[in-house]
Specification:
With 148 residues, the protein is of the alpha+beta class. Helices cover 20% and strands 38% of the residues.
Length: 148
């Protein structure tokens, strides 16, 4: 894991193993090992941050959330749901080497046209962009929303 960059999140401890030459990391939410890709590295840090700094209960976090978009199944990287299981926060994670820009925002906005989450977060682990949807307009936030 030493080749993966330090991210702009607090450090976390991951349970990892090497299997057939591939590093896998334990995903407690899914209850299984996943290949530790650069995007997964970002996602695991993001999930830890949501639970430790934003007040999100782990049971409200859904990874690979299904988004039916124009008859094509898509998946949002992370969705936090509210008390009624409705999407509250939509997160798109990219690998640290992938810039988070207009394309990522357009992807998240397309997903959110179906999900109607109040918040959107875009991150590559190094840069985070957070916004709140207010009357159909995405307003930038200074940081991650507190969801507790």
């Amino acid at each position: 894991m030493s080749e993966l960059p330090k991210l702009n999140f607090p450090a976390i401890r991951l349970r990892a193993r090497r299997r057939e030459g591939v590093v896998e990391v334990w995903d407690a939410l899914r209850g299984s090992y996943l290949v530790l890709t650069p995007e997964e590295w970002v996602r695991q840090h993001l999930i830890a941050y949501l639970t430790t700094h934003c007040g999100v209960q782990p049971t409200r976090i859904v990874e690979e959330y299904a988004v039916p978009l124009n008859g094509q199944p898509q998946r949002a990287d992370v969705v936090v749901v509210d008390d009624h299981a409705a999407p509250l926060l939509l997160v798109e994670c990219k690998a640290p080497g992938i810039p988070v820009g207009r394309h990522t925002l357009e992807q998240a906005v397309r997903y959110n046209s179906v999900l109607h989450a109040r918040y959107i977060v875009l991150t590559n682990g190094l840069k985070h962009y957070c916004c709140e949807q207010r009357d159909g307009v995405y307003v930038p936030l200074d940081g991650f929303p507190v969801l507790s």
